[in-house]
Amino acid sequence: MAEESRTTCVDKLGDEFEVTYGTLADSAALVAMYERFSPKAITQGLPPTDDAARAEWVSKLLETGENFLAWKKGVVVGHSCLIADHSRRDGEYLIFVDRSCRHRGMGTVLTRLAIGRGRDLKLGSIWLTVEALNFRAIKLYRNMGFVFCDAGERERTMNLGL
Questions:
Q1: Burial, 148: exposed, middle or buried (Cβ in 10 Å; 0-12, 13-18, 19+)?
Q2: Whole-model pTM?
Q3: Contact 40, 49 (CB under 8 A)
């Protein structure tokens, strides 16, 4: 997906949403999503609960990662980010979708875009951490080809070979 492109998608309920590549120009809209996000600090303290820390976290993701945003009616409702480590030929993946838009296929679209970008960047793998009891997220990741690579009790690491 080119930085300037905007793709219209339809979710499982027939509602349209748009997907774009996220840039620093989207910072305020993305911070606003995370201000509304519930629950905060859901995994590994993310998204941060403190306003200043949250704004700094968003800024760093937009500066260093490959970001994809899902929009509904001009509001960001989903965000995925692939943070590439070219020296290791891998990337860390993270995704957050607004509670009102979950279980509708938006996470699948955002994940596919990040995987495609990882392939474009010639990464060998993408990894993520997920709460061990987050069964819906685990199902999404497994459907995308991720496999567990540890046996943690609270958090698990999953990997996808590209």
A1: middle
A2: 0.90
A3: yes
Ranges of the chain with pLDDT below 70: 1-4, 39-43
Please count the structural domains in the chain. 1
* Residue 1 lies inside a defined structural domain of this protein: no
pLDDT tens, position by position, 131-158: 888 898 999 999 999 999 988 788 899 9
State which residues form the domain around 60.
Answer: 6-161
Q: Using alpha carbons only, what angle is made at residue 99 by residues 157 and 128, rounded to the nearest 5 degrees?
A: 15
- 107, 95 contact by CB (below 8 A): yes
| Alpha-carbon distances of 9 from 13, 40, 139, rounded to whole Å | 11, 27, 21
Cis status, amide bond into 39, omega within 30 of 0: yes
Indicate which CATH number applies to the domain containing 125.
3.40.630.30
